[in-house]
Write a structure and sequence with these properties.
Layout lengths: L5 H15 L5 H4 L8 H18 L3 H17 L6
Helix pairs in contact: 3-4
């Protein structure tokens, strides 16, 4: 029913993705180097995957959680303590 508007919808979604997207180097630019490293994020995501498997959740929930973690880490400086 929305085929006539498909190109406009995808164009709008692409603009929103460019505006709201997460920069690939956010760990180096936002986080303090001695506090949160890429390995820390990797351990967190690995733990999230283990929990995801244990509870047999949907794949979309895993993608959403990782997106939320990355967005949060790209905006807020985290301290280990």
């Amino acid at each position: 029913m929305a085929a006539d508007f498909a190109s406009a919808i995808f164009e709008n979604m692409r603009k929103a993705e460019m505006k709201l997207g997460i920069k690939p180097d956010y760990l180096q630019t936002v986080q303090v180097k001695s506090e949160v490293k890429d390995t820390s994020r990797a351990f967190l995501v690995e733990w999230i995957i283990d929990v995801h498997r244990k509870f047999r959740l949907m794949a979309e929930s895993l993608y959403l959680v990782v997106l939320i973690v990355d967005r949060y880490l790209s905006l807020v400086q985290i301290k280990k303590s």
